[in-house]
Structure formats: C-alpha cells, structure tokens
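ARCHIVE CARD
CATEGORY: sequence design from structure
SOURCE FIELD: tokenized fold
FIELD CONTENT:
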C-alpha cells in the first residue's frame, strides 16, 4: 500500500508544479506591457536626465563634457531656485488642502436630493474635462489688470475703495494666489468624485447607528467617515500631490514664472532653464530635485494606506 500511495501522489505534485510555473509565465506575459511602458516613459527619461545633470549639455549642440555636481551646486546657490522650491511646497500644500476640504463639501452636497442635481454635477465636472490651455485663457481675462471681473465685483461690494485695485499677475503674492486658485478649480472635480465614491460606500447602518448614539456632525465626519475612507482618501491625496508637485502648465500659461521669476515652481523653472534657456544640464539638475521628495511622499502615503487597510 505504501508504494501505491507514493506512485499516486507524485503525478499530483508534478501537475501542481506545472500549474504554478504556467501561472508565473502568464503573470510575466501580462505584466510585460506595463513594465515596458514604465521602462520607456519613466526609467529611460529619468536615467537620461540624471546623465545630463552631470554634464554641461546645451540645446542645439551634441558636444558636452562631464562637470560632476557643478550644476547642482549652481542651482542650490541660485535664489530663483530657492524661491521656486518654496513655491512648489506652498503651491502643493495649500492647493491640496483646499481641494480636499472643498471636495468634501461638494461630495456631501451631491449626496443630497435636490432640483437641478444633474446640472450641478455637470458644472462640477466641467473643469476636469476642459482643456487647461483654453481654460487658462478665460482665467487670464478674469485676472486682467484692467478688466478683472474679480476686481469689479470687489469694487461693487465695497471691498475696494477709490484708487484701490488688485494687479493679480503683476504682484508676486497675488500671482501665487491666482495660480493656486486655478489649480484648485482644475483639481476639484477629481477630488469630489473620489470623495463621493468613498462616502457612498459607507453603509447607511453605520450612519444610523452613529445618529442613535448621539454623534454630532463633526464627530461622525472625523471619527467614523474619514477613518473608513482613509485608504481611498490616501490614494486621492497621493495622486493630487504627485500631479501638483510635477505640474507646470498653470504657472507657464498664466504667469510664465513672473513677475521677476517670483511664481516659478520646480517644474516650470526646469523647463525655463533647460528648454527656453538652452542650458540642458542645469534644467535637468533642477528637475532631479523633484524625485527624492516624490519618492518619500509616495512611500509615506502608501504605508499609511496599507496600515489603514490592515486595521
């Protein structure tokens, strides 16, 4: 009986091993397109940027020589770079905080039933669908030094007295405020949709039980709903931070970094130095500074999300 048992078990182990090998091959085949995409569009450009940051490469010339860390030293010593680095963190933090807060308000409003709800949804999602270049032309008129609709509304409301006027794109502080406003307007639909999906996924029994226990609005939001939405909220914040930290379209289209390079972020400064200015090595060095911050943020948020899922 012992030999018979051994003979019958051996084919089963062999078949299971064959299935596992087949699954591994299928997994590799299925992942290959994504890995190839990441390699071609992420890894290769990153390695090329790292290589160029160590050279004195310039646009329009194939001649270059290695300069080591000189580009990084020159960049760090530049007051424009330090201002752009500070602007990048301010731009990212303030805009994402506003997007999360306002997205939460809009998501809760869309959970209610009211007349014109379909139109409200369309208007909320419109900024996400509108081309940013076309939308920025409209915002340029809104922030125009002469025809600014915001200034005229403030004047009618009595906020601005005689001789008072806001030159939005001519003042460093107001320029950053304008850039943040447009980015919040642009990212708000995405945040609203994500938060609305998270809120609707919470069972009604949980809300009813919290109401019976006497939980107020803020207790229900911060002690029940946000903890239950934490994994989804973390993904939304991570996407928003990465997108905002690396985005240059609003800054370039609205202010082009002005006035006096005061509204530059790292992405727009890298474009100005490397493409418009022709100093490819210096531009690549500015762009490289984006990488460590994004890696740290991604690791931190993904670990936070994983702990929330485990709990």
């Amino acid at each position: 009986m012992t030999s018979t048992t051994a003979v019958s078990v051996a084919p089963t182990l062999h078949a299971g091993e064959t299935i596992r090998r087949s699954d591994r091959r299928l997994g590799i085949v299925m992942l290959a397109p994504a890995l190839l995409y990441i390699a071609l569009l992420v890894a290769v450009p990153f390695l090329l940027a790292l290589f160029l940051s160590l050279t004195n490469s310039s646009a329009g010339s194939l001649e270059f020589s290695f300069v080591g860390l000189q580009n990084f030293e020159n960049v760090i010593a530049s007051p424009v770079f330090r201002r752009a680095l500070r602007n990048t963190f301010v731009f990212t933090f303030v805009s994402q905080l506003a997007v999360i807060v306002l997205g939460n308000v809009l998501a809760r409003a869309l959970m209610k039933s009211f007349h014109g709800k379909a139109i409200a949804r369309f208007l909320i999602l419109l900024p996400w669908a509108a081309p940013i270049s076309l939308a920025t032309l409209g915002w340029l008129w809104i922030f125009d030094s002469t025809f600014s609709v915001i200034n005229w509304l403030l004047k009618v409301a009595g906020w601005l007295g005689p001789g008072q006027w806001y030159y939005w794109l001519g003042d460093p502080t107001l320029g950053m405020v304008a850039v943040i406003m447009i980015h919040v307007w642009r990212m708000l639909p995405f945040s609203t949709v994500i938060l609305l999906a998270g809120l609707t996924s919470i069972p009604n029994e949980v809300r009813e039980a919290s109401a019976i226990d006497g939980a107020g609005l803020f207790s229900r939001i911060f002690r029940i709903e946000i903890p239950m939405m934490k994994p989804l909220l973390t993904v939304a914040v991570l996407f928003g931070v990465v997108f905002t930290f690396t985005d240059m379209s609003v800054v370039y289209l609205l202010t082009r970094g002005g006035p006096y390079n005061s509204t530059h972020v790292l992405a727009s400064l890298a474009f100005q130095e490397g493409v418009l200015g022709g100093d490819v090595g210096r531009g690549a060095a500015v762009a490289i500074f984006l990488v460590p911050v994004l890696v740290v943020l991604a690791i931190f948020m993904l670990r936070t999300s994983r702990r929330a899922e485990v709990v």
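CARD ANNOTATION: Residues 1-13 have pLDDT under 50 and may be disordered. The two ends are 49 Å apart (CA to CA).
SHELF: design records, drawer C
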